[in-house]
């Protein structure tokens, strides 16, 4: 049983309790082992827990209770812990209170302080990796921190070890486990800790009292102080985020910590957590160092206490946290002060998922020659796509309430709302480019020519050399997005509403990558993955080699491994036997037949053979709808078409004498064993290239669609698998088929696998590759093809996402039909027309059935509907999207002479009106 399935409410970094005592709690570090020592699966999932005394224990999930989630940040997407399959929301605010303890050397509690505001504590190392800091008018992120440590010995001698965290020779006497937990926000060393070294660390140290002695090898840390900070500058009030200007005029990367003002903890650094070491300032005393904790509320409290008192700071440890969050849900409901344990992080977000405040564009008209082309099919220019802001979302219906802006709005003015509209989530996409969202860190830009303001801020940092600047009125966090405006809470505590052009979003970067950006000697480009078989940038693949797939993280999101072994031939023979008996369909092989499939077998899947206009099975001598003879064999050898993806690939490597025979053997296998729904063309002038098309199986979102693939056989084939390129037309309708054309499959060695899942030179074949793509990739629930998502099968989160993903895949399949009709791959032009002439009205009939709320084979009226179809739900959002799609489909099918499509012209007009009654 998978841990994520059995314990959906327990996440990494959760604070959990497993007993009544103060020390009977800790932070979830990781899941327990997937298997027991004897190789069996554990009966109950386990978790590794980091405890307050820095020990790690393993507990059963059933013994754990989540008591806090202090890591939740503004703009983080969450779901209700009691209804993970329901609507989601975004966090708009978070407040954490701390319970602190002081432990003695034996780990026993000697003092407890409860309900402490974070403004009363400071970290041992005040700045952490990734934290946002300010220097004058500049905003930056900390990429590295140098820490000096004072060590006191038993005889009273004291020395200072410079850059102690970077010095591997200085080590703690006791290994503290919190070093493994979020080290970016904690120091390896803290006062009271015993540290020593067998090397020359103490000999090379600066001695404050006494001098080096070989007997002084272990001491006690008495002081930890930052000596230097490396900062990656990301924005300023006078040049925004312009990369060139930032590089030319930014301050030096190396900074004195005293010259920096702490703004906020980076989002990926989380907040306070148990076992964190800190200094606690008792009420009535000043804060430890105002340059590292600018808190207007704290300053006001201190003023009320009167004159500044002597600083009293106690070294403490965080025992527990209590966090409350404010959540804005998809339906527009706002909740304040929600206990953090009552919501859970929601990371599996579909492209069709939107939240209030998101800026979106209308993609309902994206049915032109290319997805991002603004030219219509008749050569005219398409109208500019509408831009709007999301107000509310109905996740059950997949509909979105959008306020559309007037398109003529001046960039320097607030956008005016033209109208509100209920649209399908499938007809929207996030606005490309730099947009402002809730939780973004923004910088207020100085007006042109306002050098006085800039000078005043810069002069402050220059004249007050020993005091960090405190003017934070120009850097803030987005807390609301009213019509055409942006509401910001600034660093000085004030709140104001600004126009979008008056600010710029300062994008935070992952702290792990920052050091490379500020290290001039780093060689991040020295390593290349061009020859990595798992990388989409395959040799000879121009689009994959561009690096776009790798930048977008597409490789991580792809999965679904090839799962054939030597018994594939018996399955192929079975398919051919069924087809040879005149059946119009082929029952899909259950996925449980394949080893390590990890997915449930479909209840009833069918691959329909191509049919003629009357619905009967079509063979090579069948007449088309216009009564003209049409022949298209499943396999043939032709001249290479100029639009083949691999045509420009140089064939410079000499091939062995047996290579042509190997290819001809593959051709023979294809000619004799191809299923009725796959067609292949080899090329006599380029034996290393092939082109294939497969028909989407009924009962899947890809039904009646055509899917084209170009293949290339490397010189070392069959020692290595073929390269395969998918004609995507810029659409991503399956996790294994990328927009770039990359095909992710273990059988192609483009995804990890082992044993029979990967290419086996002695057993694997081109036929196996093609049948695998059709049967295992283009299946009825493509959502679970995503990496790791097979564990969500049967869970509320999985069910919540699988339906919209499948509906969107269906809409993209319809859109791909329009692309293929306009630009059919060469050598398949006649086949494309014949296919849609015979199947066009059934495609539209399926659309109509979806509009009625379900799809049933008996409703379609197809002659080959001998298998009883199962009803499938249909969201209102899908109906709305189909209303926009059907007119284009009807026109395209009528244009090629498809019969029986005229009746759907009336349906395409009346569809929106009928849908209005279902809202």
UniProtKB/TrEMBL annotation:
Residues 658-818 form the UBC core domain. Keywords: Transferase, Ubl conjugation pathway. Coiled coil: none annotated. The keyword Transferase applies. Gene3D superfamilies: Ubiquitin Conjugating Enzyme. Pfam families: SH3-B_UBE2O, SH3-C_UBE2O, tSH3-B_UBE2O, UQ_con. The keyword Transferase applies. Residues 446-465, 516-553 are annotated as: Disordered. GO terms for molecular function: ubiquitin conjugating enzyme activity. This is UBC core domain-containing protein. It comes from Lolium multiflorum (Italian ryegrass).
């Amino acid at each position: 049983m998978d841990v994520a399935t059995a314990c959906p409410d327990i996440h990494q970094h959760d604070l959990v309790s497993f007993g009544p005592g103060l020390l009977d709690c800790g932070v979830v570090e990781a899941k327990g082992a997937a298997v027991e020592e004897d190789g069996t699966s554990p009966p109950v999932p386990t978790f590794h827990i980091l405890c307050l005394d820095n020990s790690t224990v393993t507990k059963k999930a059933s013994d754990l209770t989540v008591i806090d989630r202090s890591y939740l940040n503004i703009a983080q997407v969450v779901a209700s812990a009691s209804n993970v399959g329901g609507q989601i929301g975004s966090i708009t605010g978070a407040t954490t209170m701390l319970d602190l303890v002081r432990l003695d050397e034996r780990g026993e509690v000697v003092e407890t302080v409860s309900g402490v505001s974070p403004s009363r504590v400071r970290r041992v190392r005040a700045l952490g990796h990734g934290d946002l800091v300010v220097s004058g008018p500049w905003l930056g992120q900390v990429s590295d921190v140098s820490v000096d440590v004072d060590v006191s010995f038993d005889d009273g001698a004291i020395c200072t070890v410079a850059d102690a965290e970077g010095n591997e020779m200085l080590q703690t006497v006791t290994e503290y486990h919190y070093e493994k937990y979020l080290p970016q926000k904690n120091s390896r060393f803290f006062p009271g800790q015993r540290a020593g070294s067998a090397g020359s660390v103490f000999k090379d140290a600066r001695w404050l009292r006494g001098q080096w002695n070989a007997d002084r090898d272990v001491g006690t840390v008495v002081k930890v102080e930052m000596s230097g900070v490396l900062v990656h500058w990301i924005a300023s009030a006078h040049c925004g985020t312009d990369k060139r200007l930032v590089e030319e005029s930014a301050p030096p990367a190396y900074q004195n910590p005293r010259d920096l003002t702490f703004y906020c903890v980076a989002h990926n650094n989380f907040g306070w957590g148990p076992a964190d070491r800190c200094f606690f300032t008792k009420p009535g005393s000043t804060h430890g160092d105002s340059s590292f904790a600018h808190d207007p509320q704290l300053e006001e409290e201190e003023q009320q206490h009167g004159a500044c008192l002597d600083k009293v700071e106690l070294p403490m440890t965080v025992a527990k946290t209590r966090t409350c969050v404010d959540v804005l849900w998809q339906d527009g409901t706002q909740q304040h002060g929600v206990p953090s344990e009552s919501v859970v992080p929601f990371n599996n977000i579909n492209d069709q998922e939107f939240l209030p405040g998101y800026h979106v564009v209308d993609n309902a008209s994206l049915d032109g020659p290319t997805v991002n082309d603004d030219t219509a099919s008749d050569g005219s220019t398409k109208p500019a796509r509408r831009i709007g802001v999301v107000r509310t979302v109905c996740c059950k219906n997949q509909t979105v309430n959008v306020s559309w802006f007037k398109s003529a709005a001046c960039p320097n003015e607030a956008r005016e709302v033209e109208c509100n509209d209920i649209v399908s989530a499938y007809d929207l996409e996030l606005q490309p480019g730099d947009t402002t969202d809730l939780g973004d860190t923004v910088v207020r830009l100085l007006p042109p020519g306002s050098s006085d303001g800039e000078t005043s801020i810069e002069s402050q940092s220059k004249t007050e050399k020993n005091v960090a600047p405190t003017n934070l009125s120009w850097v803030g966090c987005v807390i609301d997005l009213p019509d055409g405006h942006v509401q910001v809470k600034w660093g000085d505590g004030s709140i104001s509403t600004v126009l979008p052009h008056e600010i710029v979003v300062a994008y935070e970067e992952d702290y792990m990558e920052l050091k490379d950006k500020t290290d001039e000697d780093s060689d991040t480009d020295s390593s290349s993955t061009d020859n990595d078989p798992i990388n989409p940038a395959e040799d000879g693949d121009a689009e994959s080699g561009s690096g776009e797939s790798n930048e977008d993280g597409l490789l991580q999101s792809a999965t679904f491994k090839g799962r054939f072994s030597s018994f594939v031939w018996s399955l192929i023979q079975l398919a051919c036997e069924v087809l040879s008996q005149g059946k119009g369909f082929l029952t899909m092989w259950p996925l449980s037949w394949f080893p390590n499939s990890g997915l449930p077998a479909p209840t009833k899947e069918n691959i329909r053979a191509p049919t003629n206009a009357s619905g009967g099975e079509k063979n090579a001598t069948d007449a088309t709808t216009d009564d003209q003879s049409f022949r298209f064999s499943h396999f043939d050898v032709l001249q290479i078409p100029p639009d083949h993806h691999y045509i420009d690939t140089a064939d410079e490597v000499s091939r062995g004498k047996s290579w042509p025979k190997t290819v001809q053997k593959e051709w023979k296998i294809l000619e004799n064993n191809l299923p009725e729904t796959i067609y292949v063309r080899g090329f006599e002038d380029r034996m290393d290239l092939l082109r294939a098309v497969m028909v989407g199986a009924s009962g899947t979102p890809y039904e009646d669609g055509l899917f084209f693939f170009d293949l290339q056989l490397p010189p070392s084939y069959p020692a290595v698998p073929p390269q395969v390129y998918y004609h995507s037309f810029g659409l991503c309708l399956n996790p294994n088929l990328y927009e770039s054309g990359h095909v992710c499959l273990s059988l192609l060695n483009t995804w990890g696998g082992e044993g029979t899942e990967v290419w086996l030179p002695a057993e694997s074949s081109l036929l196996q590759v093609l049948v695998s793509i059709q049967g295992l990739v283009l299946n009825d629930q493509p959502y679970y093809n995503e990496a790791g998502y097979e564990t969500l099968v049967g869970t509320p989160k999985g069910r919540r996402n699988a339906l919209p993903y499948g509906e969107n895949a269906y809409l993209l399949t319809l859109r791909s039909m329009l692309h293929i009709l306009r630009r059919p791959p060469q050598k398949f032009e006649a086949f494309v027309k014949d296919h849609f002439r015979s199947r066009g009205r059934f495609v539209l009939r399926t659309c109509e059935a979806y509009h009625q709320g379900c799809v049933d084979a008996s409703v379609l009226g197809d002659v080959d509907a001998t298998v009883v179809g199962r009803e499938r739900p249909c969201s209102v959002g899908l109906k709305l999207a189909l209303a926009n799609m059907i007119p284009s489909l009807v026109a395209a099918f009528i244009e090629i002479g498809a019969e029986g499509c005229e009746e759907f012209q009336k349906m395409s007009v009346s569809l929106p009106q009928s849908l209005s009654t279902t809202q």
